[in-house]
Amino acid sequence: MGIARDLYISRRPVAGLAAIGIFWGSFAAWLPEIKTRAGVSDAEFGVLMMLSAVGGMSAMMAAPWLRRRIGPTILPLSGLIFAIVASSPALVHGRTGLAAALLVIGASMSLCDILSNIRISDIEAREGRSLMNLNHAIYSLALAASAAIMGIFRAVGVPHALAAGLIVLVILGLVIVMRGARPLRDTAEREAEPSGIGAPWLIVLPGAAILWLSFVVENGVESWGAIHIERTLEVAGGLGSFGPAMFGLAMGLARLAGQGLTQTLGEVRLIAFSVCMAAIGTVALALAPVIGIAIFGAAAAGLGVAVVVPTANSLIARTVPAGQRASAIARAWMMGFTGFFIGPPLMGLISEAAGLRAAFGLLACAVVLMLPCLWLLARRLRGRPATAQRA
């Protein structure tokens, strides 16, 4: 009943994250075909993915302001915009079309994502319990299911346009769940936030760095996993999508477990253990000689990075006063979420020069770099009074 109640009280942001997972799983599964249809090389595709970062950064900068001006209805509105643009990858037939699609997807997806995470943080503060891992588990499970289903669709010859239409309908259904939210913050917080005093950039920097590195790894595996398996290991089209699918499934299951593990191990030790698992997975992906080991690597990487983002998110929110919570999360994500979009371009450039095995080796290095950032974040958290951490 505990998980059921947690899902119910956070059902609106859960719907937002599920919508993003469903789209991204589909996008990852169809990427080999999208890339071929657009007629771009690995390096060109990597550079075009930077446009998603431009759109995402713009949306995240605007998110706190939009939230103050429009109120809770901004979440379903962001979901509606996301649903409208979700079919754009199926319409891509060249570089220009791919560039435009990535720009609008980056902006709409990022807005829905950051608003969902801020909403979860507010609910956590009200309920006095951790909800980030559970909510992000739904995102990962939605991604896994979507990637697997779309991989089957590709294998049996379902047109991309038809599959994209189905994704749009599902997201529209989730937008209905997002509706009806009311303000959660108390009067003191609402008065503090519009004052223009945001969370200090240096305070959120260690947490933002962890988010950045984690997102580099996450989207690197999701975007290039299918291409790596199908090209490097020379397997049939459609089977490569089971790499991202297994990655998402492992992330979802790990996040469900993380909901309880945070109480047992504590956030900092949980992230440290997860980083070690992610390192094993990314190295296995880089060196995999056969598809079985590649899928194992994807699963291990998913288990490893699963709890990093949601757990770090909770830590970031606890390092600042309550009135700066939305600002801290928005600023950390504005810096950190660029990794979600920069990861694939970096992978593309390295793949063009040295191959996809070297690109996945880069992801292993990114995983290890999380450890010094975690130490800095834990040090900052220890400097906060216990009462302030619970605010």
Automatic annotation (TrEMBL):
<feature type="transmembrane region" description="Helical">
    <location>
        <begin position="98"/>
        <end position="116"/>
    </location>
</feature>
<feature type="domain" description="Major facilitator superfamily (MFS) profile">
    <location>
        <begin position="204"/>
        <end position="391"/>
    </location>
</feature>
<feature type="transmembrane region" description="Helical">
    <location>
        <begin position="199"/>
        <end position="217"/>
    </location>
</feature>
<dbReference type="InterPro" id="IPR051788">
    <property type="entry name" value="MFS_Transporter"/>
</dbReference>
<dbReference type="Pfam" id="PF07690">
    <property type="entry name" value="MFS_1"/>
</dbReference>
<feature type="transmembrane region" description="Helical">
    <location>
        <begin position="43"/>
        <end position="66"/>
    </location>
</feature>
<feature type="transmembrane region" description="Helical">
    <location>
        <begin position="12"/>
        <end position="31"/>
    </location>
</feature>
<feature type="transmembrane region" description="Helical">
    <location>
        <begin position="161"/>
        <end position="178"/>
    </location>
</feature>
<dbReference type="InterPro" id="IPR036259">
    <property type="entry name" value="MFS_trans_sf"/>
</dbReference>
<feature type="transmembrane region" description="Helical">
    <location>
        <begin position="237"/>
        <end position="258"/>
    </location>
</feature>
<keyword id="KW-0812">Transmembrane</keyword>
<keyword id="KW-0472">Membrane</keyword>
<feature type="transmembrane region" description="Helical">
    <location>
        <begin position="356"/>
        <end position="377"/>
    </location>
</feature>
<dbReference type="InterPro" id="IPR020846">
    <property type="entry name" value="MFS_dom"/>
</dbReference>
<feature type="transmembrane region" description="Helical">
    <location>
        <begin position="270"/>
        <end position="288"/>
    </location>
</feature>
<feature type="transmembrane region" description="Helical">
    <location>
        <begin position="328"/>
        <end position="350"/>
    </location>
</feature>
<dbReference type="InterPro" id="IPR011701">
    <property type="entry name" value="MFS"/>
</dbReference>
<keyword id="KW-1133">Transmembrane helix</keyword>
<protein>
    <submittedName>
        <fullName>MFS transporter</fullName>
    </submittedName>
</protein>
<feature type="transmembrane region" description="Helical">
    <location>
        <begin position="137"/>
        <end position="155"/>
    </location>
</feature>
<feature type="transmembrane region" description="Helical">
    <location>
        <begin position="294"/>
        <end position="316"/>
    </location>
</feature>
<feature type="transmembrane region" description="Helical">
    <location>
        <begin position="73"/>
        <end position="92"/>
    </location>
</feature>
